[in-house]
DNA sequence: CACATTTGACCTAA
DNA sequence: TTAGGTCAAATGTG
């Protein structure tokens, strides 16, 4: 990506990258259609999701998106102030909101199944609903930082019917907050230990947190990637510790686990973006129960480019807002560089 | 007291 | 009309 283009605007760079990725995905889709039908179904769904994601991103870049930035209603500017009287709310006019409720929601970013609800982010439950086709209720969470930072990330959680000990979590919207506990730490490391197969271009790999057994598993739609994404437990890298140790952390809130303690947040994410491909990403989280963080595809590229598109829900790992990627400052100018691979690398010399 | 969760009402898209 | 998603008062918890 912005290999040498210091002159190009970040948006342009991102746009090019997204277009490129989309094209690649399209090609992959074509290839898959020609391979075995069995594996194709899943992969096909994955590709569809990716394409949707890319389209969404492109729309955002082009300014044609749904304007997830239009935070007029979501309390970004400070949630308070909207009190709705229960009685006669709808008819009493003032409290009625036309488009700020209901189905206005961020696009689904990711669906994962996990044995714990801890994903490295701080969530606040705002509702629970018995869903028609499910025996278990669905719980609604939004980022704890919605009021103070306007973070619109949400997630829907419901107990897996197939396996009650697991949760199926749908992530919506991206985290724009700067929760220290989830502040991403990116590092490019040699792809040595977890080199994905060559056919896994644009692959992001997240290692399970702490090597703990509680790890996200791939969702139905992304299981194809799961194997690579959750590859292996990886130790945190000292250099990251030192580099980001200034961020304190607030432990992620989790169901049944009050977020009170505070500790350092050593959230680490490693990724490598080389030659237009994400080679490897590993992460570590602080919470003992934590699962790894991030569900697979967090589109770090978005963060790099600073495009505010809905990339990662539950985005524990890759806040896509430029602000939350401060340590990558300088990268926008195209100076991705000091890392292992070629021009499309994250810069850490903040 | 501050913040999180619960829960029924409200709202909107399908 | 219904189902899903959200709001916000009430309640719980540290």
From TrEMBL:
The WRKY domain, residue ranges: 112-180
Subcellular location: Nucleus
Disordered, as annotated region: 65-109
Chief localisation class: nucleus
Alphabetical UniProt keywords: DNA-binding, Nucleus, Transcription, Transcription regulation
GO molecular function annotation: DNA-binding transcription factor activity; sequence-specific DNA binding
PANTHER family noted in UniProt: WRKY TRANSCRIPTION FACTOR 21-RELATED
The name this protein goes by in its record: Putative WRKY transcription factor 70
Basic residues bias spans: 94-104
Cellular component annotations (GO), alphabetically ordered: nucleus
Keyword Repeat: no
Organism: Triticum urartu
């Amino acid at each position: 990506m912005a290999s040498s283009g210091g002159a190009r605007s970040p948006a342009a760079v991102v746009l090019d990258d997204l277009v490129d990725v989309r094209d690649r995905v399209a090609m992959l889709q074509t290839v898959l259609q020609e391979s075995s039908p069995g594996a194709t179904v899943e992969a096909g769904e994955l590709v569809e999701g990716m394409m949707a994601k890319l389209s969404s991103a492109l729309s955002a870049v082009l300014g044609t998106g749904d304007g997830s930035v239009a935070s007029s209603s979501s309390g970004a500017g400070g949630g308070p102030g909207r009190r709705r009287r229960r009685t006669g709310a709808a008819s009493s006019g003032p409290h009625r909101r036309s488009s700020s409720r209901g189905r206005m929601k961020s696009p689904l970013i990711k669906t994962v199944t996990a044995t714990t609800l801890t994903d490295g982010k701080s969530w606040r439950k705002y509702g629970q609903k018995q869903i028609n086709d499910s025996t278990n209720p669905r719980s609604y969470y939004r980022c704890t930082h919605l009021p103070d930072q306007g973070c619109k990330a949400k997630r829907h959680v419901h107990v897996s019917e197939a396996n009650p000990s697991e949760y199926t979590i749908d992530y919506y919207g991206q985290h724009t907050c700067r929760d220290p506990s989830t502040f991403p730490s990116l590092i490019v490391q040699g792809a040595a230990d977890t080199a994905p197969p060559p056919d896994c271009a644009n692959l992001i790999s997240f290692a399970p947190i702490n090597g703990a057994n509680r790890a996200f598993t791939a969702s139905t739609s992304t299981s194809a990637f799961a194997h690579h994404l959750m590859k292996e437990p990886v130790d945190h890298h000292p250099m990251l510790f030192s580099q980001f140790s200034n961020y304190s952390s607030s432990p992620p809130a989790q169901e049944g686990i009050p977020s009170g303690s505070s500790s350092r947040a050593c959230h680490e994410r490693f990724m490598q973006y080389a030659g237009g491909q994400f080679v490897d990403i590993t992460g570590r989280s602080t919470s003992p129960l934590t699962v790894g963080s991030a569900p697979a595809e967090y589109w770090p590229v978005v963060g790099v480019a600073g495009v505010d598109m809905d990339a990662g829900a539950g985005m524990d790992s890759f806040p896509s807002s430029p602000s939350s990627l401060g340590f990558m400052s300088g990268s926008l100018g195209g100076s991705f560089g000091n890392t292992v691979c070629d021009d499309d690398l994250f810069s850490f010399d903040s």
